[in-house]
Write a structure and sequence with these properties.
Protein name: L-lactate dehydrogenase complex protein LldG
Number of domains: 2
Largest sheet: 6 strands, parallel
Pfam families: LUD_dom (PF02589)
Organism: Roseococcus suduntuyensis
Radius of gyration: 21 Å
InterPro entries: FTHF_cligase-like_sf (IPR024185), LUD_dom (IPR003741), NagB/RpiA_transferase-like (IPR037171)
Length: 235
């Protein structure tokens, strides 16, 4: 059923015709401007504090973060994390150009496969779209370069995230997504799926006992590239 048919059926049920022009203009303006509601003050801080807040909130929710000064260090940081966790040096990696451009030859023991996730995968490497400081949350929109299966199937998920992509509030993350998803025909589009990930999967449904990995990865490790000089900690 088309959108017009659905709306016509709703109007018929409400016994109401099309909205008057002034109400249509008001609603159109509201949709176009994305008005802000109450935003927590804790995210309205200087950039170094914003990144520090993001890290604290990730760790509070049982995730881990490693800050990396240069992209060239990423393969080594990944290999060291896997070794420390006694995990296989084999990764299902998002086929994102930024991840594929890393110097994987510098870490020959790592086996990296750029593809979607598979139920047999132990470890994945996802490309993070944005981080949200107020809750330590990752925004992971689906795309051919960011398969959603990598967020759900492996037991351990690693996420590459640039510090420059950390924002204070959810509204700012949505602003980024709208700004970077444009097409000439419609003026903008949303991905098929947008996941918000705050720490590893967990549940306390059974006897109020916290169980990690209940519905997805039991480990979440963020590799944070310090690419924003304004966000670096004070010396």
């Amino acid at each position: 059923m088309s959108k017009d048919a659905i709306l016509t059926a709703i109007r018929r049920g409400l016994r109401r015709g099309p909205l008057p022009a002034d109400q249509q203009a008001m609603l159109g303006g509201r949709l176009a401007t994305h008005p802000r509601h109450l935003i927590p003050a804790r995210s309205r801080v200087a950039r170094p504090e914003q990144v520090a807040l993001f890290i604290r909130n990730v760790e509070k929710e049982f995730g881990t973060v490693r800050r990396v000064a240069d992209a060239a260090e990423m393969p080594a940081a990944i290999g060291e994390y896997l070794a420390a966790q006694n995990l296989p040096q084999r990764i299902a990696m998002a086929p994102h150009p930024e991840l594929q451009g890393l110097d994987w030859d510098s870490r020959p023991m790592l086996q990296v496969e750029a593809r979607r996730g598979d139920p047999q995968d132990s470890v994945s490497l996802q490309h993070g779209f944005a981080g949200i400081a107020e809750t330590g949350t990752l925004m992971l929109p689906s795309s051919p370069h960011r398969p959603t299966t990598l967020n759900l199937l492996p037991d351990t998920e690693m996420v590459f995230l640039r510090a420059s992509r950390i924002v204070g509030a959810y509204e700012e993350a949505w602003d980024l997504l709208r700004a970077e998803n444009q097409d000439a025909r419609t003026g903008g589009f949303m991905p098929r799926n947008v996941m918000f990930v705050t720490g590893p999967s967990r549940s306390a449904d059974i006897e109020q006992t916290l169980e990690l990995g209940a519905h997805g990865p039991r480990r979440l490790h963020i590799l944070l590239l310090d690419d924003d000089p304004a966000a670096l900690p004070a010396p």
